[in-house]
Amino acid sequence: MTGKYLGKTDLSGKQNYSHIKVKKRSHFLDLGIYIFIRFLLRILSILPYKTKIASGGLIYQKIISPLSGNRRRILDNLKLIFPDLEERKREELCSQVPNNIGRTFFELLSPNAFAKMALSAKVSGPGFNILKRAQDQKKPVILVSGHLANYDVVRVVLNANQVSVGALYKPMNNPYFNSFYERCIKEIAKPLFPRGRTGMGNMMRYLSDGNVVALLVDQYMSHGEPLKFFGHTAYTATSAAKLALKHDALLITFYVVRKDDGVNFDLVFESPVKPSTPSEMTQILNDRLEKQIRKNMGQWLWTHRRWKSPSALLNRS
Fold it and tell me: Dihedral angle at the C-alpha atoms of 159, 170, 282, 304, nearest 10 degrees?
């Protein structure tokens, strides 16, 4: 990032410092956004938790999402995956998806109240007891999910069951907000590792010591494998499967589902994926996630350009 603001050289060899205004504007914009978010949180803090999270969902749905172009991305993805989906359902999803994003955002910025609520999540599925037995034997476990509902519920629940989960997070570009954001997500549960070479290295050491790590594998990866997701090519990272094979770790899928009241959750742990090849194992991860998304369409991140591939571009044209 620092290099972005160094003096640029034009063809005459002279330094061009016009970028300094951009830097100052960016600095004040970042600070302004941070102050606005803290001010908003202060106002919402006088409300009961359920009302606060519902308000956060509406703020993102009605104000932030329309300004960020989310609607177009949601519609593009739905047109590709469900070309015959009726208009009423498309419009519902254009409201439900950003509402869930907003709820998740405000939950993460309300760590204590969120953690208390997440503790009441209904846990089901064979993978939960398998995971606990593996940890009793200090066998490493890799938990895999997607951007469905609020996936941080798993960190709270497992931490309460004496199972620490290491997870990667992406630091925010806004340095003022990032400091606050990191404080909040670390209050929910630890350990956390910032995305990047150092963070990944620390997480790998944590895994090799016989611990649990959690990864989300539903984002576009330009150097990933061209696997299938909802019947279309989706370039997918096979790193979770490769790590499981390398460290002889269990690969367990889990999913968080937001209940109808908007603040409570179900947490499902599925059976471990059987070891085979990284591509075959990762395809199973995609298939399992797709099945969960079909059940809870409005809770997945349809705003993400997941299908950036030649076949997807052809079908979009």
Answer: 120
